[in-house]
UniProtKB/TrEMBL annotation:
It comes from the Bacteria. Gene3D superfamilies: lambda repressor-like DNA-binding domains. Residues 114-294 form the DUF5753 domain. This is Helix-turn-helix domain-containing protein. InterPro entries: Cro/C1-type_HTH, DUF5753, Lambda_DNA-bd_dom_sf.
Length: 302
């Protein structure tokens, strides 16, 4: 029973899960019924395990289990071939042990489902990040990060806060040292006006934005208040795109106060993509964005 071991929550396995869920739903079968059928075929599984596969949260997926499900769902030859290719070697990143830092803070990351986010972020070749209230995490300074997490999570101890700060800085190092990727950061103008941690912390943060805005692969645009009302007022989001070799579609990630969720239905992804594209067109171009940030730095000292 060959098993394909890829990175937890890999883009390829996530796509397999989405397609299997669609086939099951179309067939009118419940997870319990599908699991019962597989057990009749001598395969060890249950509804919970199938749910994890559909949600892209399994580290391994057995070929014979997928084959049994495709037969049960009466998938046509073309669909079966596409899904089988997704399981093939080389369709996802090589599985690597999770860094000790992330294992050490897994209890904090788990409740927000942030481990899943980190896995997907590491695989993405393009990130389109819209932020309404804060500087994007990958662009934050350490002091800014500390004050943000302290404000957002008053329930945490100082040691736990430091742990989450370390995780965020780890993300930034991993992004800098990993495969080249594009980062399109769309930041609402109000973020520059919200003083987090005091003038000195904001000065350092804005200077960091200026420097980062000229880094290869990173584009920062400020969405001015003059843009008025728009769909982005509903809240921040990240659109992740993956290597073509994975055949995985884009996903949208949204963080709430108590958890985080990802959307992978085509209609949802299209809606958020259209929103980002529209807001991107309303934003200041990179040159005017840098001018705007410089002006805000000067105002901090007036």
């Amino acid at each position: 029973m060959p098993e394909h071991k890829q990175a937890p929550g890999s883009a390829a396995l996530g796509e397999v899960g989405r397609r299997l869920e669609r086939l099951r739903t179309t067939s009118g079968l419940t997870l319990t019924a599908a699991a019962a059928h597989c057990r009749e075929q001598g395969l060890r599984t249950d509804a919970t395990a199938l749910s994890r596969i559909e949600n892209g949260r399994r580290r391994t997926v057995a070929d014979d289990l997928v084959t049994a499900l495709l037969r049960l769902y009466r998938a046509d030859k073309r669909t079966s071939t596409e899904i089988t290719k997704l399981l093939g070697p080389g369709t996802g990143p090589v599985r690597r042990p999770r860094p000790p830092l992330l294992r050490r803070h897994s209890d904090l990351l788990g409740e927000m489902r942030f481990e899943d986010y980190l896995d997907r972020e590491a695989q993405a070749v393009r990130l389109r990040n819209y932020e309404l209230t804060l500087v994007p995490g990958l662009l934050q300074t350490s002091d800014y990060t500390h004050h943000v997490i302290t404000a957002l999570r008053p329930d945490l101890t100082p040691r736990q806060i430091e742990g989450l700060c370390d995780v965020r800085l780890h993300r930034q190092r991993a992004a800098a040292e990993g495969v080249p990727r594009e980062l399109d950061a769309l930041i609402d103008e109000s973020v520059l006006l919200r003083t987090i941690g005091g003038p000195a912390v904001m000065h350092e943060q804005l200077e960091h934005l200026l420097t980062t805005s000229e880094a290869p692969g990173t584009t920062i645009r400020i969405l001015p208040a003059s843009a008025g009302g728009h769909p982005g007022l509903a809240g921040p989001f990240v659109i992740m795109s993956f290597p073509e070799a994975t055949h995985a579609r884009d996903i949208v990630w949204i963080e709430t106060l108590s958890t985080s969720v990802h959307l992978d239905q085509e209609t949802d992804v299209a809606r958020y993509t259209d929103t980002f594209t529209h807001l991107w067109s309303l934003a200041l171009d990179p040159a005017h964005t840098r001018t705007h940030i410089r002006n805000q730095i000067q105002e901090l000292h007036e």
